Amino acid sequence: MMEIVHVIGGGLAGSEASWQLAKAGVPVVLHEMRPERPTEAHKTDALAELVCSNSFRSDDWEANAVGLLHEEMRRADSLIMAAADAQKLPAGGALAVDRDGFANAVTAALIEHPLVEIQRGEVPGLPPQDWTSVIIATGPLTSKALAEAVKTLTGEDELAFFDAIAPIAHFDSIDMNVCWRQSRYDKAGPGGSGADYINCPLDKAQYDAFIAALLDGDKTDFKDFETSTPYFEGCLPIEVMAERGPDTLRYGPMKPVGLTDAHRPHEKPYAVVQLRQDNALGTLWNMVGFQTKLKHGEQVRVFRMIPGLESCEFARLGGLHRNTFLNSPVLLDDRLRLKADLRLRFAGQITGVEGYVESASIGLIAGRFAAAERTGVPLSPPPPTTALGALLNHITGGHLSMEVEGGGRSFQPMNVNFGLFPPISVPPRPKDQSSKDQRLKGPRSSKSFQRKRAMSARALADLDAWLQGRTPIAAE
C-alpha cells in the first residue's frame, strides 16, 4: 500500500491539499485540532470554516487576477471551488457563498472519500520522524506548540506573530514625471544600482495636509484576541508615529536627507515618501515604513494625497494584525518544502499569501507536489505565467526578500494580482479610434483591460498545458 501523507490543519488549504492527494490515489490523514482545541476565531468544528467574510471576491477571470485564480483552480479539480460554486449566493460579479453550506460540503466530501482519514486533536510540536511526508497548513492561528517548534527549526526570526503591512503600488500607476529613482546618498546596496527607490517629494503645505489627514483618518479596531499583543517598535503604524509629533515622520520614514529631486534639483523636498521594489519583475513597489491601521478606503484617499501617487493603483493595502507566517522566499524551495527538513511542506496563509482562494490554491499546489512525490510521477511547478505559478513564484523566490530599516524583513502576505505576472505586450489601439470613442465603449475597451485579458488568456493556455503534462511554450 502507498505510504500515507499527513496534512496538519483542516482549513481551506489543508482541505484542498487532502483532496488533491486523495484524487491522485494517495492515502491521507488530515489532522484538525478542533473541537478538542478551539481557536479564538472559529465557531464550529467543520473543515474549511470561513471565519471572516463569505466572499471569494471577483469571479471575473478576464479582468481580475483572483477571478483568474478561481478559473485555474476549477480546471485543476479544486474541491474548494466546487463547494463554493455549489453554495454560491447572489453577489453581482463576486463569488459569495453560504458559509455553513460551503464548510459542510467540504467536510462531507472529505469524510466520504475512502482515502481520507480525519483525526481530531492537536499535533504538538514537530511531526514524528516516521511521518515521511507532511503538509503543514495551520494558517495564521497556528498553535503555540507547533509555531515554537517551527521557529526552533528555522531560526528565531523566521516567523512573525504580529505583523505590520505596508501598501504595495503598481509601478505603472506611479507618476514618474513627479517622482524619481534614487537611493539615499546614491548608495548601492547588494545587487543595487544607487537608484533603487522611487521617491515622492512633498513641500511643507503638502506634508502638513498629509499628516492632518493621516491623524483624522478612520482606523481599524483590533479583534479581542489581538489587543494584548504589543507593537514592534521597528514597525509602528505610520499614524502612531504621527501621533508622537508633527515632525516624527520627517525624521523617520519620510526623511528627505541624501536625496535630490531629479525634476527640481535646486528645490529641497520638505519630506519624501520612498517606495522599494517588491518583486523581481519590477511591477510592484512597497511604500517604505507605511504600515498602517487606516481602513482600506481611507488608505486610498490619504495616500493619493502624496505627489506622484494621485492616480496610484494598489496591489495590496496596509494592515496590522496577529499573523503567523514563514519567511518563505528564504525558507522554502520551489516545491514548498522546508529547506531545513524536506519531509515538511507548507501551504496556505502560513506561507505568506492572503485570502481564502490564495490559501486554498497553495494547498492545491502542495497536495499535487506531495502526490507526485508519492506516486513517482514528475511534476514541475506551474508556469509563472499562470495565477497559480505567479503566487508560488512570489512566495518561493519572486519576492526580493531583504532586511529592512528598523529590523525585520520585507516579505509580507500578498493577495494574487496581475503585478505578480510576467509582463505581456498588447497591440496598440488603431490610430483612427479617438480617446472619446474608447471612453464611450466603457472600461473593458481600455488598454489596461486588454492587457489583463491577454495575461488571462495566456495563463489559461499555459495552465491547460501544465495540467496535461506538457511544457507551455511561454515557460520554455
The biggest beta sheet is recorded as: 6 strands, mixed
The helix/strand order is EHEEHHEEHEEHEEEEHHEEHEEHEEHHHH
> Based on helices, strands and strand pairing, what is the structural class?
alpha+beta
- Would you identify the CATH architecture of the largest domain? 3-Layer(bba) Sandwich
The multimeric state of the shown protein is single chain
- CATH C-level class of the largest domain: Alpha Beta
Can you tell me about this structure?
The chain has 476 residues and is α+β, with helices and mostly antiparallel strands. It folds into 3 domains: 5-158 and 327-418, FAD/NAD(P)-binding domain, CATH 3.50.50.60; 168-321, Elongation Factor Tu (Ef-tu), domain 3 (Beta Barrel); 422-469, no CATH class. 31% of the residues lie in helices and 16% in strands. The protein has a 6-stranded mixed sheet with strand order 6-2-1-7-17-16, covered by helices on one side. Strands 10-11-12-13-9-14 form a 6-stranded antiparallel sheet. A 3-stranded antiparallel sheet has the order 3-5-4. The longest helix is centred in the C-terminal third of the chain and has 21 residues, at 447-467. The two termini are 37 Å apart.
Describe the secondary-structure layout.
Layout: E1 5-8, H1 12-23, E2 28-32, E3 55-58, H2 65-75, H3 79-86, E4 88-89, E5 94-97, H4 99-112, E6 116-120, E7 134-136, H5 144-154, E8 159-165, E9 168-170, E10 180-181, E11 197-202, H6 204-216, H7 238-243, E12 271-277, E13 284-287, H8 296-303, E14 314-316, E15 319-326, H9 328-331, E16 337-338, E17 341-346, H10 356-375, H11 387-398, H12 435-441, H13 447-467
Parallel strand pairs: 1-2, 1-7, 2-6, 7-17
Antiparallel strand pairs: 3-5, 4-5, 8-15, 9-13, 9-14, 10-11, 11-12, 12-13, 16-17
